[in-house]
Structure formats: C-alpha cells, structure tokens
Amino acid sequence: MKIGLTAIKPVLRVRRPHPTVRWRLALLYTVLFLICGAALLAITNDLFANFAFSGPKPDLGPSRNQPVTAAHVKIASALAFQRSVGLNRLRIESAIALGIMTVVSGVLGWVVAGRVLAPLRTITATAERISDTNLNERLAITGPRDELRVLADTIDRLLERLEAAFDAQRRFVANASHELRTPLAVMRTTLDVAIAKPGTVPPQTRELDADLRVDLDHADRLLESFLVLARAQSGRLGEQKPVALEPIVAAALRARADQIAAAQLSVKTRLAAVAVAGSATLLERMVENVIENAVRHNEAGGSIELTLEPFGKEVRLVIDSGGPLLEQSAVSQLAEPFKRLGEDRTGSQNGHGLGLSIVAAVVAAHDGRLRLHARAEGGLRVEIRLPAAVPELEGASR
User: What average pLDDT does range 366-385 have in this prediction?
Assistant: First the structure.
C-alpha cells in the first residue's frame, strides 16, 4: 500500500493546476459567491422559519366558549409537521441550488478572469518577442484607459527609450569606426615615408616599423569587426538571396590551413549542400569567425569537427573544437563583446573578444539561434541554426 501511495503522489502533483492569476481570481470569485450565497440563504431560511411558516396557532387551552377537543390537537400537530417538512425541504433545495450556482460562478469567474487578463497575456507575449533587433515594435493596447492600458503605455515609452539608446550606440560604433580609419591610414603613410627615406635605415627603426604595423593591422581588424557588428545588430541585411554555406566553410578552412598545420590539428568535416537566405558578406564573416575561434583557441594536437547538415526546415552548423575544460556558466557569456575565457584568451594579440559576439549578431539578424556548450572532454561546441532557403538543396539539384 505504501508503494501505491508513493506512486500516486507524483501524478497528483503533476496534474495540480498551475497557480496563475487567472486561477486565483476564479477561485476568489467562487469563494466570495459561496460566502455571500450562504449568508443570503441563511437569512432567507430564518425569515421563512419565523414568518412564512408561522401561521395562526390554535388555542389549545381552556376557553369560555369552546373546549379543547381532539380535532384541535390533530390540526396543531399537522401544522407543526407541515412546517417542519417545509423548512427541511427548503434547506435541502437551497443547499443544492447553492452548490450548483457555486460551480456556475466558478466557471463564469474563470471566463471573466480570462477576458480581463487578455490584455496582460498580449503584453507578455509581445514583450517576450521583442529583442534588441526589433525594438521598433510596440504593444499598442487599445481599449479603456485602465490599469492594464497604463502599464502597456508605460512599456511602450520604455521601448522607445531603449530603441533610441540602442540606435545611438550603434551609430556611435559605426561612426567612430569610420572616423578612426583616417588617422590609422595617416599613421601607416607616415611609416611608409619614414622607411622610404634615402639612406640607410637603422635596424631599430625597421624593428619599430614592423611592431607598429602589427599593431595597426590589429587596429584595422578591430575597426572592421566593429563595423560588421554594428551592421549585424542594426538588422539591415540588404539584398537577401540564397547563400550556399558549404563553399564558405571549405574556403575558411583553406584560408587557415597554415595555422591548422602549425598547431597539428586534426580536422574532420561532414558537409552537406545546404543554403540559407541572407547576406553573403555577413554569413561569410560568421563562418570565418567560428572557424577562426576553433583554430585560435584550440590546443596543440587538438581536433576540430565540422558538421553542416539540413535539420528539418533549418540548416545546422556544428563546430566541436578541443581545448581546456570550460565552465558552462562562463561559456554562455562568450557571445557578449570582449568576453574571453581562460589564460590563452586574455592576451591582447590573441583575438579581440568580438568574434563570437559578431557571430551572435549575424545569427540573430538572420532569425537563427546560437548555442554554446562546454564539452565534457574540454573545448567548445558551437551550434548554429539558420532557416533554410531551400530545404533540400542537394535533392533539388539532382
């Protein structure tokens, strides 16, 4: 018997209604109706008992004109019995009516609470859908200006301020990146002029020139990353057309063949002919960044596994790379700008912390999903899902 009760308890716990506001309001309506109904019926029964069933009582005592007879006693007993039966029947029928109306009030309370809370569900669904890529959406709740309407208008004004702040930030990043290109170009030109002067250039000057050019190249890559990030976060993809991902992945691997060979990495690929609709430039940058991240932050003699395959109505790109053990709580923050993990991710020359943030922005701009997982054996697993432009490109080409 104990085993049976233990097995039943989880089922009852699972089936228990979720304590939502709608449930609480419906229960409150039902309890208030039950209390008021019970009080009303108690008053009604008391009134009926004292007035409606209290007819003229026969005088059973001695009278000057008429003595008490057996007929008087019989009539008084019949009236008392009829009064008792009537009161009992009234109480039973009142209790039945109260039970029925309590159930009806509970159902009506559930329906009314749902209609009252309908704007709140609309607000919740819209707020969950709005992100930094579609801050231009508004709740736009119509109807009387009640508390829910005031709440919706307040959220709309908050979204307006957030949209203005995000747009200002993106414009600043884009404008600053453009403006900083000019002094960098001037500095590069100054170095060219200094090195090209007639006469022998001291070795110290050439060494300084090489170091400065490395820093300038790093600054150029950083500014380019800022521009790509600002473009991806703005959601302006330009002309969208089907883009085949397999050639992009293969080209990115070929471009880093020397780095892969120097680190003695083993690369395994399983690439299918799939395509997504979007910006070819941004998608190329997305693929290059995830592969660059897998190569740069891998360990000597490590491995890289790439899988590109159709996944229902989506295209899935999975990159498993080796490396040190990472914590999942910290890995989930890698998509934020300038976030790095581990000792090998803190050097200023080993990446600038924008690679995966650009990937996240490009994926979001294409209505996709990015998932980062810390592998149990060490390293990182990057999974990208994008809506497929052609569900089965390989099958269509045959």
Answer: 90
